[in-house]
Prior knowledge:
Elements: E1 2-4, H1 5-14, H2 18-27, E2 31-33, H3 38-43, H4 48-51
Antiparallel strand pairs: 1-2
Helix pairs in contact: 1-2
Amino acid sequence: MIILKAAVIAALRARGQHARAEFVDRELPDRIDTVRHGGLLATLHLDPASLAEPSQA
C-alpha cells in the first residue's frame, strides 16, 4: 500500500509531534511504501490503513 507523506505529517502534527513530522518530511519520499517503511510507521504509532486514500484502502 502507498500512502502520502503529507498524510503522515498531518497526523503527527495533529498529535503535537512536530519534531517527528519534520523528520518524516526530511527522510521519506512523497509516496511512502508501507511495506518498505512499515517499521517506521509502527514506531510512530501510525496505522497505514487509516492514512490511505479512500481509493487505495
